[in-house]
């Protein structure tokens, strides 16, 4: 409260002076823009003279088309520069966020949910299939091979050796081969 307050008439007077100065600056800026516009138009868009013959008209059309092509090329180039700059800006923003390290991982809650309920939550009403994993398992039937049967039928190896021992066993072996 040590500073003295300004009277309302003084405030009003200063406000009106500021507005007058701002108005003058705006008028001057508007006049400069108009001069710039007229200078640009005189430079880039010369006064159009209507051609009298068909040949002159065709030449004028070719000239205008050429100018349009040049302007389109410039517009395309500028557009690509802007897109590239925007992409670089986005990449730099991401890098800055990564360097700041202010990503907070949310605390995840444990949710008890069946596979059917989870698919229904993810897919919405599209999910109609019941997920019964045991029903989808393949049934495998075990086939018994003939070689395995023969090995089982042979039985105890000691009996085979006893049968083949001696002359009788050798005689049986030769008879079996013949």
Automatic annotation (TrEMBL):
UniProt lineage: Eukaryota, Metazoa, Chordata, Craniata, Vertebrata
Keyword Acetylation applies: yes
One Gene Ontology CC term in the entry: troponin complex
Quaternary data: Binds to actin and tropomyosin.
Coiled-coil residue windows: 19-102
GO molecular function: actin binding
Lineage top rank: taxon: Eukaryota
Pfam families in the record: Troponin
Annotated PANTHER family: TROPONIN I, TROPONIN I, FAST SKELETAL MUSCLE
Protein name as it appears in the record: Troponin I, fast skeletal muscle
Function: Troponin I is the inhibitory subunit of troponin, the thin filament regulatory complex which confers calcium-sensitivity to striated muscle actomyosin ATPase activity.
A GO biological process held by the record: skeletal muscle contraction
